[in-house]
Automatic annotation (TrEMBL):
CDD domains assigned to the protein according to its UniProt record, in alphabetical order: SDR_c
The protein's name in its UniProt record: SDR family oxidoreductase
Pfam families: adh_short
InterPro entries the record matches: NAD(P)-bd_dom_sf, SDR_fam
PANTHER family: EG:BACR7A4.14 PROTEIN-RELATED, ZGC:101858
Length: 248
């Protein structure tokens, strides 16, 4: 598994933030990468001509997209990162539409992709990583239903692993929960909102959070996880600047 050169990797939500960093890391590790996003993005050339990045412009939340791209590219690894940026405001200032936005995007995307992975199914030895959020553990009172949607992503990843075991499929599913980081658009928005709520500056709030998780570090961590022996992979991990920590 340490050699990713022949293992096509689909990264869903690769145009920005952690998804962009993960797609780049897989290409630099030698994988042919299919970068799925609604909008095109710029990627640097992988070092030493290692892997490649091919962009697929598509809305990952649309039901037919997952099956079509899985059939077209026959991936060995699928990394699901895509989701909506939540509207940051207290509960009473949300509408049901803004509160439920991440249920109708993040959970929907994970559901469609996990379902199609099981139905196809992917080849033996395949790896599936769903990138959720540390908010699934700690909550997020200013982001509506975001934390609950991310917890559900973690749950259904576990359900998919159970179904794979029952069907005798050699596919490893795991969820990765990154801690909030100001290097992403979502993290910057959250940092501003929580700093204002606490009556401190954004810089002070970010300092309280400690060393930020970078897109490059997230990419390296997910590559490391996919390279690990399947029997050592836990159902879920917290991801911080210090790396991956197994969740109980």
């Amino acid at each position: 598994m340490s050699d990713l050169s022949g293992r096509t990797t689909i990264v869903v939500g690769a145009s920005r933030g952690l998804g962009h960093g993960i797609a780049t890391a897989f290409a630099e590790a030698g994988a042919p990468v299919i970068a799925v996003s609604r909008t095109p993005s710029e990627f640097r050339e992988p070092a030493n001509g290692a892997g490649t990045i091919q962009q697929e412009i598509a809305d990952a939340s649309e039901a037919p997209v997952a099956g079509a791209l899985i059939d077209r590219h026959e991936p060995a690894n699928v990394i699901v990162v895509a989701g909506a940026n939540p509207l940051m405001r207290p509960l009473q200032h949300h509408t049901w539409e803004s509160f439920s936005a991440n249920w109708n995007t993040d959970v929907k995307i994970a559901f469609h992709w996990l379902r199609e992975i099981l139905l196809k199914p992917l080849r033996p030895g395949s790896r599936v990583v769903v990138v959720s959020s540390g908010a699934a553990l700690a909550g997020s009172p200013l982001s509506g239903g975001y934390a609950g949607s991310k917890a559900t992503q973690r749950f259904i990843t576990g359900y998919a692993q159970d179904e794979a075991h029952l069907a005798g499929l050699d596919i490893t599913f795991t969820a990765v929960l990154p801690r909030i980081t100001p290097v992403t658009e979502l993290g910057r928005s959250a940092s501003r909102a929580y700093a204002a709520r606490s009556g401190i500056t954004e810089e002070q709030y970010s300092k309280q959070m400690g060393e930020p998780l970078t897109a490059e570090a997230a990419g390296a961590a997910v590559v490391e996880l996919v390279r690990a022996q399947a029997n050592t992979v836990a159902p879920g991990y917290l991801l911080t600047s210090a790396g991956l920590q197994k969740l109980r």
